[in-house]
Amino acid sequence: MSDQYSVLGKAPGTEDLKKLSSPGNTHLTINKLNAGYGKMEILHNFDLFVNTAQSLCLIGPNGAGKSTILHSIYGFTNIFSGKIEIEGKEITKLTPAEKLKSVGIAYILQDNSVFPDMTVEENLLMGGYIKDKTEESFEEAEKILQKYERLRNRRNQPAKVLSGGERRLLEISRALVMKPSVLLVDEPSIGLEPKYIEMVFEILGDLQKNEKKTIILVEQNAKKGLEFADIGYVLVSGQIAIAGKGDELLSNPDVGRLFLGG
Questions:
Q1: Residue partners of 239: CB distance under 8 A and separation at least 6
Q2: What is the pTM (predicted TM-score) of this model?
Q3: How far is 184 from 104, CA to CA, in rounded Å?
Q4: How far is residue 231's CA from residue 96's CA, in Å, rounded to a whole number?
Q5: What's the rounded Cα separation, in Å, for the pair 23 and 233?
Q6: I need a labelling partner for 69 at 20 to 30 A (CA). Which of 57, 61, 78, 167 fits?
Q7: What are residue 28's DSSP bridge partners?
Q8: What are the beta bridge partners of residue 228?
C-alpha cells in the first residue's frame, strides 16, 4: 500500500500524517495550528509530525504558508489556536531565544544573514550569543572549523570574501554552535550555483544521518527538496493538499505537473 495521501480523494488527515512519521519516535508535533501575522490567519488547522533524525520538505506555490510554518515553530507568528510540541513538551508560546536555548530549535534564514565585515570565526561565535558559557561557543566553533575545511581556511578573513555556497555553509554552521536538535531551513538552494546546491544538501544530509538532526525545510526547488527529504508536504492555501514519502511525491503526476515542470 502506498504511503501517499492525495488531494484527489481528500486531503491527508492527522492519522495519515502520523503514519508517515512512523509513530513512537515523534520529535516535533504541530496540532490544529491556526497562525499568521497580525490578524491575518495563514495556516488553518495545520498538523505536522516529524521524527528524530527525519527530514521533512514543504513545497507549494508562493503564499501557500510554507515559511509561515517555520516562523510559527520558531516563534515569529501570531498563534491563534493549536499547539506545537517537542518530545511532548509544549513550546507554542516560547520566544525564539527560549526555543533555541531550552529545546534546541535553530532557524537558518534565507541568504545574506552573515555579517560581511566580521571574520568567519567571529560569525560562527555569534551563533552562541545566548549561551551562558562563552567557552562552550568557542569549543563548538572550533569543532565546526575542524570539520569544514572551506571555513577553516578562511577563519580569519572577513565573511564578505566567501562564495555564495561558502556563505550558506557558514549560515548553517553558525546555527550549529548552539547544538540544536531541530534545524528549520528556509530555501537552502536559493541563489546558489548547482555545485553549491549539491554541497549544501550533502551537508544537510550529513547533519541528519550522522548527527541525528531533525530537519524541516522549505524549498522552491521542489525536485531537489523531495529528492533529499524523507517526507514531503504539498501546501495549498495554508493547508496540506498532498503528503507522502519524498520519492513517492517525486513520481506523483499531480506534483510533477504543478511543481516539477513535468
A1: 11, 43, 44, 45, 46, 65
A2: 0.91
A3: 11
A4: 25
A5: 17
A6: 167
A7: 50, 86
A8: none
Name residue, grid cell 508535533: 29
Helix/strand/coil for 11: coil
Q: Is 151 a domain residue?
A: no
pLDDT tens column, 37-90: 999 999 999 999 999 999 999 999 888 999 999 999 999 999 999 999 999 899
Q: How far is CA 166 from CA 41, 150, 161, 172, 232, in A?
A: 36, 7, 9, 10, 27
Residue 201 and residue 207: Cα distance in Å, rounded? 10
Question: Is residue 246 in some structural domain?
Answer: yes
Sequence-distant (≥ 6) Cβ neighbours of residue 145 within 8 angstroms: 121, 124, 151, 152, 155
Q: Is residue 146 part of a domain?
A: no
Q: Residue 44 has which C-alpha cell?
A: 488553518
Q: What is the DSSP letter of 24?
A: T
Asked if residue 58 is part of any domain, the answer here is yes
Work out how many domains the chain is built from and give that number.
1
Tell me 204's DSSP state: H
CB of 228 closer than 8 Å to CB of 194: no
Q: Specify the CATH number for the domain of residue 33.
A: 3.40.50.300
Query: Whole-angstrom Cα distance, residue 229 to residue 190?
Result: 17
Q: For strand 89-90 and strand 105-108, is the pairing parallel, antiparallel, or unpaired? A: unpaired
Contact by Cβ (8 Å): 177, 142: no
Residue whose grid cell is 491563534: 80
